[in-house]
UniProtKB/TrEMBL annotation:
Domain Glycoside hydrolase family 42 N-terminal: 11-372
Catalytic reaction(s) noted: Hydrolysis of terminal non-reducing beta-D-galactose residues in beta-D-galactosides
InterPro entries, per the entry: Beta_galactosidase_Trimer, Class_I_gatase-like, GH, Glyco_hydro_42, Glyco_hydro_42_N
GO molecular function per UniProt: beta-galactosidase activity
Domain of life: Bacteria
Gene3D superfamilies given in the database record: 3.40.50.880, Glycosidases (3.20.20.80)
Species whose genome carries this gene: Paenibacillus aestuarii
Pfam family, one: Glyco_hydro_42M
EC number from the UniProt entry: 3.2.1.23
Designated name of the protein: Beta-galactosidase
Family classification: Belongs to the glycosyl hydrolase 42 family.
Keyword presence, Zinc: yes
Record key words, sorted: Glycosidase, Hydrolase, Metal-binding, Zinc
Domain annotation Beta-galactosidase trimerisation: ranges: 388-594
Length: 661
């Protein structure tokens, strides 16, 4: 990939006649589309009969694109195995939690762990890599499409066998598994690994250790499949490899991207869920640090399927989305899809061109994105995103714990996005970092909704604190062991000792009348909570009269090295809760001497970037209400070369400004 910004779309040339394809390429040139993603569902076109593989059509199409100045991201077509693979072979199919065997059609209908699937996927991938790897214009590869988007853990016989092998590797002996999982409860005790079931149909709930571990097993297996595909492609191509993922899918993204070259995601957040869009950018920037990420799919207008549709973007919003992405570290901003599907289950989905070849309601927005891309490209490619001083830890393994133990239907993505929105609104530049990411350079660390906190993570966080940083732990953090069991030494395990507290009670505060008082604000307390008796810590927030635990602490702080460990035992709720959280964030940002921040108004963001000898702020209004920010010093607008004075800068509806200091 070169020094440029990519503006692209998913394209399915196998579905259209040649004259339509020529028309599409001409339209792409007019709209400024400089990359097309192809091939992801085309297995039956490439191998209509088992063993008869012909890729000449795709070789021709990539040639046409290249001649038109359009690059290609080539995909492996493994989410949609053809009818010859599935017909008469239920043993190869995905089996859901209710033990229903999937039939042919839709996508993700095969078990990706089945040895015959792996064999056939490897063969088609090798053919594609060999035929297409050397072609000019192929700038990247995408494996499959949205792993585990429609399916979660497979319950087929193949997976059962591999589950037992995985358990044996993890525990060594069945005695160690029994001890770790506490299987004497409800007579769950096993005498050999072959007796350990999958978490399929049961009269009530499965053992938490079984359910969580099966998710982790499934996440590891799909990542191994990605590794396998990537290794085949690398034999024939130097172009970088990715997968288009999401926090909504049943994958461990940190593990998935470990052996891939760059990270990419798909997003269909609606215009009124700006935090839901931005959190992905701040997270995906950190899966492959130092390497730009891609938005591989977003709608030019609205998402839809046969059964549902989302609100269309207002005019101007798509440009704001794209500029924010490029400014926050995206190299590519791509649509699903170029030409509207004329058949299948996604006919109503928003596209750039209609099935009858005319511009859609989103077309002018795409032209606006292209105009903005051309204007900001020189500035973006000559700078890098600035690492934030504030980090919010994200964990897909924590997502697995919360799927096993969701309390009252808690949703990990929703909890994280709401917490992230508080950081966003505070004007702090922030990174969302995977659980295993290095924490060097951070001054303020937030660790919410992480039921199990590993020794490795704790060690990194303590080093941050010893350097003078602040570590804010909770809510819903630390109450479970690695095996998804309850600690028996203290309520929050090692965290109690490190934070200098005794956790007296953990219980659900919703509906208990509990009100917390901290930083001059009183707010209702919610979610499963912990209350503390400080030992060598100070109470910063206490539970007021009323409720079940008046006078006990729900926020504590303790000096450690040059910094502080802060426990946040409960989630403040409602508008008062948002105010309380905001004051907590601002207070500890000041104590940790966080300097990469601004007074930007809510709904507008500042994305700071750095070049060899200069700094750039990209300011984008995301909520359509306009906003402002105070510039710390005078700068220039690199697109117009006009001077921009220090002081208050007003930003209009969905407008963006680039300021070079």
């Amino acid at each position: 990939m070169g020094k440029k910004l990519y503006h692209g779309a998913a394209w399915y040339p196998e579905l259209w006649e040649e004259n339509v394809l020529k028309q599409d390429i001409a339209f792409m040139q007019q709209a400024g589309i400089n990359v097309a993603r192809i091939g992801e569902f085309a297995w039956s076109n490439m191998e209509p009969h088992e063993g008869q593989i012909d890729l000449s059509f795709f070789v021709k199409i990539i040639g046409w694109l290249h001649e038109a100045g359009i690059d290609t991201v080539m995909c492996t077509p493994t989410p949609t195995p053809p009818i010859w693979f599935t017909h008469g072979h239920p043993e190869r199919m995905y089996v859901n939690e209710q033990l229903q065997v999937m039939g042919h059609g839709s996508r993700q209908h095969a078990c990706t762990n089945h040895p015959y699937f792996r064999e056939k996927a490897a063969i088609i991938t090798e053919h594609i890599a060999r035929a297409i790897g050397p072609l000019p214009g192929v700038i990247g590869w995408q494996l499959d499409n949205e792993f585990k988007a429609h399916v979660a853990e497979c319950m087929c016989d193949t997976c059962l066998t591999q589950w037992h092998e995985w358990l044996q590797e993890r525990y060594g002996t069945i005695e160690q598994l029994n001890d770790a999982w506490g299987t004497q409860i409800w007579s769950e005790y096993y005498h050999c690994f072959e007796q350990v079931p999958q978490p399929g149909p049961a009269p009530f709930l499965h053992n938490s250790s079984l359910k969580t571990n099966y998710q982790l097993f499934s996440m590891e297996k799909i990542a191994q499949f990605a590794d396998e595909q990537a290794n085949i492609i690398r034999k024939y191509s130097d172009a970088p490899i990715t997968h288009n993922s999401s926090v909504a899918f049943s994958v461990d993204n940190e593990r998935l991207f470990r052996n891939l070259d760059f990270a990419s995601f798909d997003t269909y957040a609606t215009f009124d869920n700006v935090p839901g869009y931005l959190i992905n950018n701040d997270l995906w920037r950190n899966f492959k640090r130092g390497r730009d990420y891609w938005i591989m799919e977003t709608s030019p207008s609205y998402a839809a399927s046969l059964e549902s549709y989302a609100k269309p973007h207002p005019n101007g919003y798509l440009k704001a989305e794209a500029v924010a992405a490029y400014a926050l570290g995206a190299e590519g901003f791509c649509y699903w899809l170029w030409r509207q599907q004329r058949a299948g289950c996604e006919q109503p989905h928003g596209s750039v061109i209609s099935a009858w070849g005319k511009p859609t309601v989103g077309y002018n927005s795409v032209l606006e994105v292209e105009q903005a891309r051309l204007a900001i490209e020189p500035t973006i490619v000559s700078t890098r995103p600035v690492q934030a001083e504030v980090a919010l830890t994200y964990s897909d393994r924590a997502k697995a714990f919360l799927r096993t133990e969701p309390h009252q239907k808690l949703n990990h993505r929703g909890l994280m996005t709401d917490f992230y929105a508080q950081l966003l609104d505070s004007g702090l530049h922030r990174d969302v970092v995977p659980e295993g990411a290095p924490l060097d350079g951070y001054k303020l660390l937030f660790t919410p909704f992480l039921p199990y906190v590993s020794a490795e993570y704790t060690e990194q966080a303590l080093q941050l604190v010893e350097r003078g940083g602040v570590w804010v732990i909770g809510p819903l953090t630390g109450g479970r062991t690695v095996e998804h069991t309850v600690h028996t030494d203290s309520a929050l395990g090692a965290l109690d000792r490190l934070a200098g507290v005794e956790t007296l009670y953990t219980f659900p505060m919703d509906g208990s009348g509990s009100v917390g008082s901290a930083f001059g604000v009183d707010a209702p307390l919610s979610l499963w909570s912990a209350v503390f008796a400080p030992q060598d810590a100070s109470a910063v927030g206490v539970v007021a009269e009323g409720g079940l635990t008046p006078g006990l602490a729900f926020i504590t702080e303790k000096q450690h090295g040059k910094g502080k460990i802060v426990m946040l035992g409960s989630m403040p709720a409602g508008e008062e809760g948002q105010l309380l959280l905001n004051r907590l964030i601002v207070r500890y940002a000041e104590e940790a001497d966080v300097t990469i921040r601004s007074d930007v108004t809510k709904g507008t963001i500042v994305a700071p970037r750095r070049g060899d000898d200069h700094e750039v702020w990209v300011v984008v209004n995301m909520d359509g209400a306009g906003g402002s920010v105070t510039l710390p010093r005078a700068g220039i607008d690199p697109t117009t070369q006009e001077p921009v004075p220090a002081g208050k800068l007003e930003i209009g509806r969905y407008e963006h400004k680039v300021i070079r200091f």
